[in-house]
Amino acid sequence: MRKLILVKYAPEIFLKGLNRGKFEKKLKDNIKNVLTDIEYEFVEDSGRWFICSQHMEKIIEKVKNVFGIMEICIVTEIEATLEEIQKQALIELEEDPAKTFKVQTNRANKGFSMNSLEVSRKVGAYILQNNEGVSVDVHNPKCTINVEIRNKAYIYAKRIKAVGGLPYGMNGSTMLMLSGGIDSPVAGYMMARRGVELHAVYYHSHPYTSERAKDKVKQLTDILKEYTGKLTLYVVPFTEIQMQIIEKCREDELTIIMRRFMMRLACALAEKYGINSVTTGESIGQVASQTMEGLVVSDDVSDRPVFRPLVAMDKIDIMDVSRKIATYETSILPYEDCCTIFVPKHPKTKPRLIEIIKSESVLDIDGLVEKAICEMEIYK
Ligand code: ATP
Ligand code: MG
Question: Which of 174, 177, 212 most suits a substitution to test ligand 1, by most atoms within 8 Å of the C-beta?
Answer without folding.
Answer: 177
